[in-house]
Amino acid sequence: ALLRDTTMRTDFQETLRNLNESSVKLNENMEAMRSHVLFRGYFKDKEKKAKAGQKP
């Protein structure tokens, strides 16, 4: 019933499109933060801890 309502369907499609765009932008920002001088140490420590946790 909701999908037959064209206004509701259009709004839902727009919401999904916005979510996808936001996810892409968030990923880009996270990659940029990895190389920023203030956050570089945090991400290196996080990777080391993740690797240490994987080893038996």
Written overview of the protein:
The chain has 56 residues and is mostly helical. It is built from 2 helices and no strands. The chain has one domain. It is elongated, with a radius of gyration of 19 Å.
Written as H for each helix and E for each strand, in order along the chain, the element string is HH
Mean pLDDT: 89
Can you tell me the number of structural domains?
1
| Class of secondary structure makeup | mainly alpha
Distance between the termini: 53 Å
Total of DSSP H or I helical runs spanning 4+ residues: 2
Total number of strands: 0
Largest sheet: number of strands, sense, barrel closure? none
Shape: elongated
Which residue ranges are poorly predicted, with pLDDT under 50 across at least 5 consecutive positions?
none
- Radius of gyration computed on alpha carbons: 19 Å
Q: How large a portion of the residues is in β-strands, by DSSP E?
A: under 5%
State the helicity in percent bands: over 70%
Detail the topology: elements first, then pairings.
Layout: H1 6-35, H2 40-54
Labels describing this entry:
mainly alpha, 2 helices, 80% helix
